[in-house]
Amino acid sequence: MGNAQSPSTDPRFLTATKAFSQQELEDLRSLFVSLAAQSQSNGKFVSQSVFQAYFGVRGALGERLFQLVAQKRNDEKLTYEDLIISKGTYEKGSRNDIEEFIYQLCDVGGDGDVGRSDLEAVLKSIYETIFSPENDETGAHSQQETLEVFLNAATFSKQIEGRTEKFMSLADFRNWCNLVPSVRKFLGSLLMPPDSGRPSFQVPQLEHPENFSSEQLILRKEYAWHIGGALSQNEAEEWKLLYHSALNGLSFNTFLGNIARGDGPTVLIIKDTEGFIYGGYASQQWERHSDFYGDMKSFLFQLYPQASIFRPTGANNNLQWCAVNFSSDSIPNGIGFGGQPNHFGLFISGNFDQGHTFSCTTFNSPCLSKTSNIRPEVIECWGVQTRGPQSEKLDAVKGTVLERFKEDRNMLKLVGLASSSD
């Protein structure tokens, strides 16, 4: 009886417990007991070092997370009640409750305001948690460049009397989360068990030919992580290089032939002669059409010098464009996303030597480059490999006559010869 704990009288704890099932509470109690034992606290509390080691969040972000979960007491002692209260808000609260908690999480300085230095510290912790740059000789340069592209997507509009620096308001933060969903997913899953496949802790595995150096790829792991944040978890597991202009030449016909071998969504990436990097996620296969097609899963994105995702707004259904061998000026040959014919959100001509990008209501996206008229320097396309019953079935027939027929027919459809109705 001497070790029995008195029932809590904290109304926050009593309210929070109602958000969990009995099994969830038992699991959380078991987790607390285990971590408290590692903290050598006679079962009374969890230390900061044990907390951070278990949840695997590094740097200033890990320290700030512990501080918030421990109710900002600064005694480095996290109790069972603390854990339940925090998880009740952070995981079971309303959307506003959760966003407010994450917003406070980004205030790593703890002064009540989120500045650029706070956000940089958060991004540095995220980078070090996911990419472990200490084992990479180019890590320092790659890290700083990555931090900058994510910081460039942020707005700091909050002014405080007597201070020249501007800060990020809660509205600014919510807008930033929409542009960088990978960051929002990461920050929203920090108290999940580390072995459960936490959202946005994974990086898509990038497969490319062995004779092709990864240094020639536009799509770095950091960029893949950013794009993957807008996708489901199984779509962010494995991507396969289908086309690269350095390997295959700047050829529309070769591009069409290569992507016809894929069977599913693709990620199109362009680096233009101005050094800007951007592209689009095509949720549907590239097929010859005389008009727009696709679904609301497609989106546009920027990678450099700013990282942003632009999802469909629902203003129209002008999502994907793939026109091949048309002779009408109203049906421009090439591939694109959003906007209108000859005024796309993003478009590459059938010659693969030029294109354009305009602001468009389809994705509420801006011009993705320095100027509207673009000249591609490098184009690459990745096939998103999804694992499920459909992909397993396709794997079973791959290499057979049926599979080769399907590839050939896809190519014919692209050039408009598969049937008279195409």
Concise synopsis of the structure shown:
The chain has 422 residues and is an alpha+beta fold. It is built from 15 helices and twelve strands. A hairpin with a 5-residue loop joins strand 9 (343-349) and strand 10.
Distance between the termini: 80 Å
C-alpha Rg (nearest Å): 25 Å
Number of domains: 2
How is the largest sheet built, in terms of strand order? Answer: 1-2-12-3-4-5-6
Structure class: alpha+beta
Strand and helix map with partners:
Elements: H1 11-17, H2 22-38, H3 48-55, H4 59-69, H5 80-90, H6 95-106, H7 116-131, H8 139-151, H9 170-179, H10 181-187, E1 205-207, H11 221-228, E2 238-244, H12 245-248, H13 252-259, E3 266-272, E4 277-282, E5 299-304, E6 308-310, E7 320-323, E8 334-340, E9 343-349, E10 355-356, E11 373-374, E12 376-385, H14 389-397, H15 401-415
Parallel strand pairs: 1-2
Antiparallel strand pairs: 2-12, 3-4, 3-12, 4-5, 5-6, 7-8, 8-9, 9-10, 10-11
